[in-house]
Amino acid sequence: MTAIDEPGAIADPSLDGPAVGVIIVAAGSGTRLGAGIPKAFVSLAGSTVLEHALAPVFRLRDAVQVVVVVPADRVGEAETIGRRAAGKAADHLRVVVGGDTRQSSVLAGLAALWPGVRTVLVHDAARALTPTEQFERVIDAAARTGWGVVPGLPVTDTIKRVDASALVEQTVDRAALRAVQTPQAFPRDALVAAFRVAEDRLAAATDDAALYADAGHPVLTVDGSEAAFKITTPWDAQRAERLLADRDRDQQQEVGARPTSSIRTGIGIDVHAFADDGELSLAGLRWPGERPLAGHSDGDAVAHAIVDALLSAAGLGDIGSMFGTDDPRFAGASGEVFLRAAVERLHAAGFVVVNVAVQLVGNRPRFAPRRTEAEGVLSALVHGPVSIAATTTDALGFTGRGEGVAAIATALIERR
Ligand code: CTP
Ligand code: MG
Asked: pTM value?
């Protein structure tokens, strides 16, 4: 069989990548929200508007290319957010720089589409709570008809047409009206052509479907959803945050769980044997004249127990899974290094430390004289109060025989 006869050599459309591309425009400045930073990067219930907007896209049944369009100084941040949202599908995501108007941002997105993309969806990052089903509805209708497709809601308010002096001329039949949302789907080539034709009117257009329809193409509406509202004002942002909290609570109830508390507790334990040479590091302090503890790092059992307690409280694994106990980068590392890194991860995951309590078990060093000093050092490192108690075991067990020390820590943390 020659190479050309092999099944794999037959032209396969799937080799061109996904047939659907989703452009998420997030390059606006968010003037009306007034947060002082671009709207897509404003935090909403613990993650950014952009991350909320990306989540439903990466739940789609079939793979799509995702192009995120952002302000020039936000590319790095958007890539980090995008990678987090995309997970294992990160190779489907591109981040590009937008323009001064929404339409120039859409154009930048169109230019970044892969060759195989036939249908393009244009979506506002500001409609951050748009459900995956809305994307599916739009994609399915576009595939079925080959037309432009926009999601829309029936208009519930009575609409009046007025003249220049605000006098009512007519009550408009609202049954024939739709308030349209995004994502809006179009055959890619026809949309690019429509943009080209409308070049001088681009800035004035408020949505892509208007430009597309002006070029003479049919546009179908499908059901939109209340959740897909555009976050424009501080009120909208507040509403979105509440809806996210409700959604979280509903999901918990669906799986039969109690509503998640914002408080979480964790536990950690560490044991190290005494070594022969060197100086002891324990509870963030150096102890001249005391036997050191053995270990791949500095053997600071108190610091390590706290790290495990913090990570366990946040559900972030343990010291071994986070740092790799054999990792040469951590050979001889002080407990402080691990503590700082763990607290950083905790903060990144949206938690702050409420308090940490440690019980040290061992004959040596005599801890009481330096308790306050150790508590001060560790409290500063975890950004929360750390209290340490110390005890011996009445000469029983490995600690009683003076072979090593053990430390047990509990941590209480809270979602910010
Ligand atoms: N958008 C964009 N590029 C622009 C302007 C807007 O990508 N030059 C995007 C926004 O990021 C948003 C969507 O288009 O996701 C809808 O725009 P809008 O809600 O008006 O957002 P902003 O322009 O950021 O807000 P404002 O008008 O209040 O400044
Ligand atoms: Mg705007």
From this structure: 0.65
